[in-house]
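Table 4 source record.
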Amino acid sequence: SNTQEVTLLEPGHGYAPGDVNHDYSVNITDVTLLISNAMGTDNGICPTCADVNGDGVVNISDVTTLINMVNSQTAKIQRRSNNIRF
């Protein structure tokens, strides 16, 4: 089937993989922060959220996974906007 489960979190309850800055949105800002962190900058990101692929290690694989997540979200938005008729 072409369904995807989405878990919505209330502020202060849990975490969302990829939302490294805890702004309740996964976007290019999170990618930038994760890249910076992977290059050695201690920028205070959430280590649990930074382990995007869930393998227990934060590394370049998480960056790749997060980029794919953000690209996928952008593609979905673009497809939806292409289906809007005025």
